[in-house]
UniProtKB/TrEMBL annotation:
Record's protein name: Type III pantothenate kinase
Cofactor note (record): A monovalent cation. Ammonium or potassium.
Cellular compartments annotated: Cytoplasm
UniProt-listed Enzyme Commission number(s): 2.7.1.33
Binding site for K(+): 105
Residues binding substrate: 75, 82-85, 156
Keywords: ATP-binding, Coenzyme A biosynthesis, Cytoplasm, Kinase, Metal-binding, Nucleotide-binding, Potassium, Transferase
Residues annotated as binding ATP: 9-16, 108
Organism, as annotated: Candidatus Thioglobus autotrophicus
GO molecular function: ATP binding; metal ion binding; pantothenate kinase activity
Pfam families with a match to the protein in the record: Pan_kinase (PF03309)
Organism lineage: Bacteria, Pseudomonadati, Pseudomonadota, Gammaproteobacteria, Candidatus Pseudothioglobaceae
Annotated GO CC locations: cytoplasm
Keyword Metal-binding applies: yes
Length: 223
């Protein structure tokens, strides 16, 4: 008998799910498990608030393993690696075989992970995401999603907005350059809620995969 399967990615800002081939999302703040469809089996990847999924039955939670198929973790303590990062990496191995991949997740946090053609994770970086960065200085706190570059401001609001835009985009472009120098040709894959607004300000072409973590979850649950 065919069993329905529901895949859930709980981040710090958004809860995303995959059901019958369709992707959905809701703000973690507004999320209620009543929003989810009924399924025979539920698979969850949670780096956010686990209590959001309380009350769900038949739910399996995953953590990052040391190894999975080609993937080999770079972490000294593999289960400390965010499961969303692990799942994004195995999805990238599946979707971009035999190439060095750089995965940039621009979500609540900004993460970089490098995976060699053979599946060896080279480690990564965690930085504040755009929202965290813009809220990091209480007096100037801003929820703006504008990314204005190459301009100097003549008022405080714009100075913070342009400054944080410059900081955020500079570091992403800089990391890409650094990895290209170190590893040569790279497949760059961009995911996370801010992927789209970043992509066209990058100096390199990238593939945007908003649901890479859910794709990885579906793969991992199948194995
Ligand atoms: N509908 C939306 N509601 C809120 N934020 C959104 C929305 N769409 C895009 N975003 C942006 O996406 C970012 C969150 O990204 P993402 O969806 O990757 O979060 P997350 O998975 O919860 O984060 P993380 O995995 O880093 O905890 C926010 O900073 C916000 O700018
Ligand atoms: C870095 C985040 C917040 C990105 O979603 C998540 O992957 C996480 O909480 N990771 C645990 C720490 C680590 O990956 O080393
Ligand atoms: K994420």
């Amino acid at each position: 008998m065919y069993k329905t399967r529901l895949f859930i990615d709980v981040g710090n800002t958004l809860v995303k799910w995959l059901f019958k081939g369709e992707y959905h999302s809701a703000l973690a703040l507004d999320f209620d498990s009543e929003l989810l469809p009924k399924a025979d089996r539920i698979y969850a990847a949670c780096v956010g608030e686990q209590s959001l999924l309380k009350g769900l039955k038949n739910t399996r939670f995953f953590k990052s393993p040391a190894q999975f198929q080609q993937f080999k973790s770079a972490y000294d303590t593999p289960e400390d690696l965010g499961v969303d990062r692990f799942l994004a990496m195995i999805a990238s191995i599946d979707q971009y075989p035999n190439q060095t991949r750089l995965i940039i997740d621009a979500g609540s946090a900004l993460t970089f992970d490098l995976v060699l053609a053979g599946g060896e994770h080279q480690g990564g970086l965690i930085m504040p995401g755009l929202g965290v960065l813009r809220r990091s200085f209480t007096q100037f706190s801003s929820d703006s999603k504008q990314l204005t570059l190459g301009k100097n401001a003549n008022n405080t609001k714009d100075a913070w907005e342009y400054g944080t835009a410059q900081m955020f985009m500079s570091v992403i472009n800089h990391q890409i350059e650094t990895y290209l120098t170190q590893y040569g040709d790279l497949q760059i894959i961009l995911t996370g809620g801010d992927a789209k607004i970043i992509a066209y300000r990058l100096k390199h072409t990238v593939d945007i995969k908003p649901y890479l973590v859910l794709d990885g979850l579906a793969l991992y649950a199948q194995a």
